[in-house]
Amino acid sequence: MTDDKDVLRDVWFGRIPTCFTLYQDEITEREAEPYYLLLPRVSYLTLVTDKVKKHFQKVMRQEDISEIWFEYEGTPLKWHYPIGLLFDLLASSSALPWNITVHFKSFPEKDLLHCPSKDAIEAHFMSCVKEADALKHKSQVINEMQKKDHKQLWMGLQNDRFDQFWAINRKLMEYPAEENGFRYIPFRIYQTTTERPFIQKLFRPVAADGQLHTLGDLLKDVCPSAVAPEGREQNEPRLKTDSRSEQE
Amino acid sequence: MPNSALWAVDLFGKVHTLSTAGQYWEPCKDSQLEFKRVSAATQCCWGIACDNQVYVYVCASDVPIRRREEAYENQRWNPVGGFCEKLLPSDRWQWSDVSGLQHRPLDGVALPSPHWVWESDWYVDENFGGEPTEKGGWTYAIDFPATYTRDKKWNSCVRRRRWIRYRRYESRDAWAKIPSKDDPEQLPDPFNDLSVGGWEITDEPVGRLSVWAVSLQGKVWYREDVSHPNPEGSSWSLMDTPGEAVQISCGPHDLLWVTLWEGQALVREGINRNNPKGSSWSIVEPPTSENGIMHVSVGVSVVWAITKDRKVWFRRGINSHNPCGTSWIEMVGEMTMVNVGLNDQVWGIGCEDRAIYFRQGVTQSELSGKTWKAIVASRECDRSHSGSSSSLLSAGCFFGDEVRGSGESCAPSDTDASSEAERPGPDRPGPAESGDSPGKPRDSLAPGSGTGRATEPGEEEAAGPAIQTPGLEPCPGPASTLAELPWTNIDLKEPRRAPGRSAAGFPETTGLSSLGLLPLGLEEPYGADDHPLWAWVSGGDCAVEAHTVLKWFTVQSGLSPSMQTLSLSITPAQTAAWRKQIFQQLTERTKRELENFRHYEQAVEQSVWVKTGALQWWCDWKPHKWVDVRVALEQFTGLDGARDSILFIYYVVHEEKKYIHVFLNEVTVLVPVLNETKHSFALYTPERTRQRWPVRLAAATEQDMNDWLALLNLSCCESRRVHGRPSPQAIWSITCKGDIFVSEPSPNLEAPEHVLPCDQMFWRQMGGHLRVVEANGQGVVWGIGYDHTAWVYTGGGSCFQGLASSTSNIYTQSDVKCVYIYENQRWNPVTGYSSRGLPTDRYMWSDASGLQERTKASTKPPSLQWSWVSDWAVDFSVPGGTDQEGWQYASDFPASYHGYKTMKDFVRRRCWARKCKLVTSGPWLEVGPLALADVSIIPESPGANRSGHSIALWAISDKGDVLCRLGVSELNPAGSSWLHVGTDQPFTSVSIGACHQVWAVARDGSAFYRGSVSPAQPAGDCWYHIPSPPKQRLKQVSVGQTSVYALDENGNLWYRQGVTPSYPQGSSWEHVSNNVRQVSVGPLDQVWVIANKVQGSHSLSRGTVCHRTGVQPREPKGQGWDYGIGGGWDHISVRANATRALRGRSQERAAECSGERGLPGAPSGVAGVPQEAPSLVRC
């Protein structure tokens, strides 16, 4: 899949138009204007909201400010989920732009992880990449990389540099020509309907008979309830891993 | 390789092919015969049919196989009647061959076999060595035999002329019977096995093949004179063998192995280009004494064998010095036969399941491969039961024709068919289930092949339900009880697919008659199996390489049949319906989420961005060398959103830190300069182009270089706002490394004044590798690779490595070229020629100039992108000719060489060639199957409306055939088929002008004009011979709107004077310039060339793009040259650029032009030449 750049680019450059509004109970010195921003789907909330933070802090007193957090229709938004996932999971059916409420007080300790700095995001991101590579290549590829490659991957994401990111990520997405795919497909299935945070299982890209699995096969296997009863899986695409699996 | 295919014979004797791009077995087009053996080569296949006769199947091609028959008419002068037929008694025949020794009356020349037809009647050849003769084609001499001249002199006592007649081979895409060798005196000895190979031994004559056969009595036979122009060969020669042969295998090169009845193998020694039959036999013992060898198959440097216990063996240590090898290694698996095909790839037929296995992982470094993998492709149309069982019948009994008598079940078949077709319909739940439901015991062998059959391409909806009863399934019925006859009629597709055949009625009827015999031939009903059972396989026409994506191993399901036919040479993922769907959904999502919100601020800003790195720089001062530098690229986004970039190169000289910088918006081209050691690239600006001294930078790794190049290219394109696919008017050029560059012409490039200097043209690289490129003004672009493969531009953007641009329409492309080195020797009185030269001499192994040492071991492929694909071999096709061992002689180095030794020759050399291959990607798709040497597309007249007509495209094949492509249009730039244009000799170059004037250059160096070419008559009617400039041999021609330019072998550029509408051939050649390597004349009659040895302020540049200045209607030859990009450029095409400066004056000028130069009254230059132009120009 690494050579299907049209898809890669569309995934990478996916943006969600968002309207940030300050929570009504926050104390401000003057009225806070909403702030509009195009958020990259593949990035993390706390990584790309410096401007939001700056915007609202201008109208607040220093002592009223503690750690920033976001909420949508009463649900605190987990910063360690990619933005696109949060949107698709919670708000995909609502009208655009996506209305996110910004809080600076009452951090919901039991719902959210703290995000003290960008290092925390980087650590989380890198651990996801490592976990994915453990499934794909028994960690061989990620372990053979140098520290600066890891850094480039992260900087690519942070600075929204597609080329920079994919120059390294390409290696993570390759598999030997004689094999039909990764060892296991790294995936997580998130659902709003269940209590479980996500489903994750070992899943091989190729069936025992050599046939490539499709996304439909995967869903049928791990999440049968999500598959439409019409049974049109035959027309489903062969299972592909998109760039998101790097971060998830 | 769209035409590369695996050939196989099933148990019923039916021949099938499986394309490397396909996933279904297709029945051989001529399926009336059943075969025991097939042995394939490129474009043809030999086989032994069940009647034990040998047949050859020559694949159809747009170029006919033509052979010229010649006869000479001789006359002698006598005082009474002048020249007359009465010859002296001592003279030759009045009608003879070229030597005069053979009597050869015209009506005595017969066609060699029923597969040939005459093309026309005999006619006199009026061309003599590139010069036209006087009427009648007579050439004169003092006496026979002598040197003939064109001119009659006072002492010309004899004369002769040549009569020519062409015959054409007609039996293509059909099995042509090779006349039997049996002479009536002896008992018949039918053939038992056959093998084709030897195509790499030599290319003289073109397409020469070695065809070897073994007869039932154990004799080995060789077919003489088999080549492309003589596909049937001439006769069988008996070869002596020390034992009784049972089977034979001939490799592409010099390997030939035979299995003996006693279980040993015979190895032929001494096969070479002078003696393709070899000279002697050696014996190789089988791996174990108890189980002798049953079957061998050989490749270029491998031998595989099967012993009588069905074990598979690989022979170690095979090379051209040791065709016997050293020892046997046992491989996994039990096979009935193995076959080695192209690139030493291996196929086998499993003992148990009779499936064809492909040996995976065979590479040059690991010839024994890794594992066997079963090919599960199913047959495209299970050619039905009836057809297959008929073959079974005749496999048991040689006289198949006699059984095919009774024609009863023909009529019921149709009715039964329809009822059968309806019955399974409702039961069929869908493709998903059909794979699981059959549940046959052998399912594991061909996983999912049931599913595959359910979606065979070409099966239309109507035929859909029928396939629920795929061919072989019902066989158990008839095998057990003969009463149940209806199964013979289940061949539902047959009447529909091939009405002609079913009308003849024999598939059904033979099916019927075979029933009685069916149980005799087989112990078990093979029909119960759900995959085809195979008897023989041949990979001699099957090009599988490391990067080839094969679709043979999985049975595709779920894709619609139309989708599958689409994905011919494209990776399946790129075209699959689901991929399109995903992409479309993504695009829709982006549109939905972004369309109304584009004014929102981006969360991540990109204002300044810097990439830094360590590179090496070829320093500007002497002594020039690579110095380490730090490099930084800074990008700024201006307020208007435009990007601008500066490249800084920091270096240290005399411990002082300095830097140079380059504004990327001034860069005109970035050229990768890969060689064996350095990953470097050159960066040109107009100033650097004039100096002939680019900034050269080298990276530590190829990846690093590609990253920099991609980034710099992107920055250059961004700053010039160039992106996407090139415009239809783009100018294309190619470097000597095969890299492709394209430039958008500015309107004032061809302006009458204030012309844009051509060193300011911006070139960007397109992906791919070509030797020749040709574009017209409608976006049709063709290219030719170094290996003569023809490619058509797909419309992809300039995907240069980096991820930045789209990969739509980018495909894998490969190219092959040769690396040459020379072996030099000097004669001395003691040992004769030896490698010990004089101290002043050149290296024993050198390059062509002799100045650089080049040994076989140290010579590397041109760059790391290339890898060797052959071994070193002597090149016999060097100019000047060679002796039998490839040596060329001369009096001393360096000198002109000739192919024979004389008393005065003290040195000799020979050329060694080694093929290397490059695999890359670019916006190109192969146009098979013909290999091309030259191509020309009609340039578009400015503004002319040609829609509705197909675009004229002419080409020269690598064999020198002149071809005209039909069906080329903007929407279908590849066209549909070739139309062959007959010539009396091979051609080298062709060009078609804007008014359908076709000029061509023949191999003898003379030019030809093709008369009456028009959209209605795309191939024209006849050739007009045009002598070359005095004492020069032309090599290339280019025709613009009205100008005709030609180039000779000494680099002189000639303008054709006196071309008028009434006399389009013109009157004479006028010299324009020397020092020219290639010329391209565009639709504005603009002249661009690649020049050699252009002087710059820093160095000399070979291969420079030059633009002829001062070309005016009144002065079509122009005045001087403007020098553009250069240093290693090889080819340019400006034939797409009809962009005139948009000024009032240019219109007048054009009108003036058309008036003066006799062009039909075009309303204006911009509006162009109307349709009637061609006819007027030709008159």
β-strand amount of chain B:
25-35%
Unreliable runs of chain B: 383-529, 556-571, 801-805, 1144-1179
Into which percentage range does the β-strand content of chain A fall?
5-15%
Radius of gyration of chain B: 33 Å
Basic shape of chain B? globular
Structural class of chain A: alpha+beta
Major sheet description of chain B: 7 strands, antiparallel
The coarse silhouette of chain A is: globular
How would you write the strand order of the largest sheet of chain A?
A: 2-1-5-3-4
Q: Quickly give the structural class of chain B.
A: mainly beta
Distance between the termini of chain B: 43 Å
Total count of helical runs of at least 4 residues of chain A = 9
Query: How many strand units of chain B?
Result: 73
What number is the mean pLDDT of chain B? 78
Radius of gyration from the alpha-carbon trace of chain A, in angstroms: 20 Å
Number of helices of chain B: 17
Main interface: chain pair and counts: A-B, 50 and 50 residues
The largest sheet of chain A is: 5 strands, mixed
Oligomeric organization of the protein chains: heterodimer
List the helices and strands and how they pair.
The complex is a heterodimer of chains A (248) and B (1179).
Chain A (H helix, E strand, L loop, with lengths): L4 H8 L2 E8 L12 E6 L9 H8 L11 E4 L2 E2 L6 H8 L7 E6 L14 H20 L2 H5 L2 H12 L3 H11 L42 H8 L21 H4 L1
Helix pairs in contact in A: 6-7
Chain B lengths: L4 E6 L4 E5 L4 E4 L7 E7 L2 E6 L4 E5 L7 E13 L3 E3 L10 E2 L19 E3 L4 E2 L2 E2 L2 E2 L6 E3 L16 E12 L5 E3 L13 E7 L12 E6 L4 E4 L12 E4 L5 E6 L5 E5 L4 E5 L10 E5 L8 E6 L4 E5 L3 E6 L10 E14 L5 E5 L5 E5 L10 E4 L3 E2 L5 H12 L3 H4 L6 H13 L8 H6 L12 H6 L21 H5 L12 H5 L1 H6 L1 H9 L3 H4 L12 E5 L22 H6 L5 H4 L1 H18 L6 E2 L5 E11 L7 E12 L5 E11 L2 E8 L5 E6 L4 E6 L1 H6 L3 E5 L2 H19 L10 E5 L4 E4 L19 E4 L5 E4 L5 E4 L4 E5 L17 E18 L3 E3 L10 E2 L19 E3 L4 E2 L12 E4 L16 E16 L1 E14 L15 E5 L4 E5 L10 E5 L5 E6 L5 E5 L4 E4 L12 E4 L7 E6 L4 E5 L4 E5 ...
Helix pairs in contact in B: 1-9
